[in-house]
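quick one, 441 residues, struct below
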Amino acid sequence: MKVAVVALGKIGLPLAVQFADAGHEVIGVDVNPRQVELINQATEPFPGEAHLQEKLSELVPAGKLKATTEYAEAIPGADAIVIVVPLFVNDETWEPDFAWMDSATESLAEHLTPGTLISYETTLPVGTLRGRFVPMIEKISGLTESKDFFAVFSPERVLTGRVFQDLRRYPKLIGAISEEGARRAREFYESALTFDEREDLPRPNGVWDLGSPEASELAKLAETTYRDVNIGLANEFALFAQDHGIDVYKVIEASNSQPFSHIHRPGIAVGGHCIPVYPRLYLSTDPDANTVRTARQLNASVPERLVERAASLLGSLEGMTAVVLGASYRTGVKETAFSGVFPVVEALRARGATVAVHDTMYGDAELEGFGWTPWHTGDAADLVIVQTDHPEYAELSAADVPGVKLLIDGRNITTAKNWQGTPRLVLGDGSASTHQAASNA
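---
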């Protein structure tokens, strides 16, 4: 099959590689000329994705995968088009911003030829495929869905850094508008993916047809929104435990020893392209979902709450130097999308602190590019806030930060032993060190 992949980012490029590795002829489209140039040189344009470079080195020279900036080169004659264009959410209104998705849909529609399967993998609000994109494609192309082309929603369900592993691990969900579209989608994805055997699933791992694009759209939103709501509950427990002399991590471990409890870990921030975004996509079509809204608001408030706690313990942050450890939204990923570093830095600066940032995956120039002053081990500071649980931060001690007056650990990665003599507050840990931090300050 000839397959076109629209948008060659951290999900789209591994997908294109997966399809090519399965034997299809793949051409990817991206608006970034530099991205396209690197791919055509068989060079991974971003680090950190397991096996990506070795697969590019094999597939590109063999002519099985190439990239272009031109829709006219990729779309005509394609048997399948897979779209992984980013969908953004307005931070103030929480409404989806379809600008990039609309542009990509319009561009592919201008060059669409009959007989093509079009699969949207970008997470969408319920009803978007049927109500927004299919009419757009029909109007521009002059073709009719279920007759001349076939639309399906099949959400990506992978994490950056382990895309190829996750493609094997999780069932591939599809939801088409017509039975013929579902048949074609199943045929395509079964030809492109292989699946691990999993005895824990209610039915064999593979392509799962949910019967409609709306059901498939909701499934992706539900699985991710569940995580945000669960983390919100964990953070609520953590904030309570922190003030009542309770170690919430022991509580969660005990609770989860019973098979019907699955409480997640609390944390200073919920970042990334998925978990903080998709609940807001869900809310865009279900504004009365108060549980979802409350959890999202609570998770977004934790950075401010912990900075406010630091200010109350130290009396004031005015004129103090604060270090934020971690710019990445999670360990092992060089990505700052919706990272907690942004609200933490903003809250510190609003209280008059001078802020420096450190991350094991970013160099000084990269940190400066965000407008931050880099921090180095041995530099003095009054306050340290752990934002990312990079394993290296578990080894840091008070001796690495001369003059430190308070440690706020938002990820429960530091040890009391390394910070003896320094007030230490761990989100969710109301143990002796936390109360000592309050009394010492």
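Residues 434-441 have pLDDT under 50 and may be disordered.
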